[in-house]
Specification:
heterodimer; A: mainly beta; B: mainly beta; Protocatechuate 3,4-Dioxygenase, subunit A; five-stranded mixed β-sheet; 6% helix; binds fe (iii) ion
Chain lengths: 197, 236
Amino acid sequence: MKLPVTGSQTVGPFYHYALDRPEWSDLTRHGARGEKIRIEGRILDGERKPCIDAFLEVWQANAAGRYAHPEDRQNKKPDPKFIGFGRVFTDAKGRYAFTTVRPGPVPGRGNAMQAPHIAVNLFGRGLLKHLATRIYFPDCAEANEADPVLGLIDDPKQRATLVAQPAKPTRLGRAILPTFRFDVILQGEGETAFLEI
Amino acid sequence: MSGRDPIPYAPEQPGAQPPNDYPAYKSTINRHPLRAPIRVPHTLTEVTGPSFTRRWHGKNLADLTLQHKGEPLGERIVIAGRVLDEDGRPVPDTLVELWQANAAGRYAHERDRHDAPLDRNFTGFGQVVTDKQGGWRFVSIKPGHYPWRNTHNAWRAQHLHFSIFGPAFATRIVTQMYFPGDPLLATDPIYHSIPDATARERLVAAYDPTLSEPEWALGFRWDIVLRGRAATPAEG
Ligand SMILES: [Fe+3]
């Protein structure tokens, strides 16, 4: 006999003072190994208006392609300084940005390999249940071509919405970080592919 | 299928989750995707997720009435329960975040323009990590009803916002807890967005005198159930 799962309800518009932990937008803050990168973008609604009351949660493997979780039993180096999780809010223009390391590839089902990717859960006013999507990298064309999740999306235009775009490098202190742009369009023309996970 | 494939989490139960296209809640009109989501078989990406047993989740904030110099106004409440999965197994060591309006129905949020007083002794944010039995407990004050611009003269049922992670990226959930006997539950569109009546009523806490603190605070019990694992595939 299964217990009924608790239903989702929107986060509403008034969560920032509670949930915003600015340090969570830097996944490298404890000194993670790997190539430090920046991901930035905007969240737009069906009228291309910026969503100023939304946030992203991101989850990814470390630079070697291993998740900081007991169910990842791959024979790959763990990185105790990388927790792999971040939360980042949109600003008054609907923009968000976070700093992380480029994730390594992780296995799919069977013998498949997945292209490097970052899993995303998107929350906001107007979303009764959060939306899931993924961020892939534009400079991994071959791996993306073979990726089993991207392969589930028939329409090439829709598939392309999951691949970030190269953007102007970000200067952070003395470092210059390779930067990728990943816009989320909630509805209509160019709508981001969302995943049922 | 390889024997090393992770066991997926069980699919959604019909009627238990709200649709994103739900015009009675006006903000969904421009924000719900038009295309059906792509169904993704679970991989290591979906069955893993952040862990909160280490240093980085921050302080234990279980008593929302002790965060300032003075006491917040309002009716003191104790809210407690467990985080379980569908199979009734406790979910230990997971982060539970709570945020809410004050007793007058106003959030300590810069964009909340409701003309009700702020309470300098109340922020309305709590967080705890569940214990080995999946248990959690907060002390707070009962939030007020507040108006919102969804339709003319619309008011929200009293609610607490809850955020729960669970063991995996696929178990993440944000929801709201309601109070028994609230007359606004009859019409609140966010509450009614959950199609199945039994599933909907699970969002309403139970008055529980065993949780009440004598001469101090009124007790409510509310259990949170996260997705469990699907049965192991026969060929696996
Ligand atoms: Fe609210």
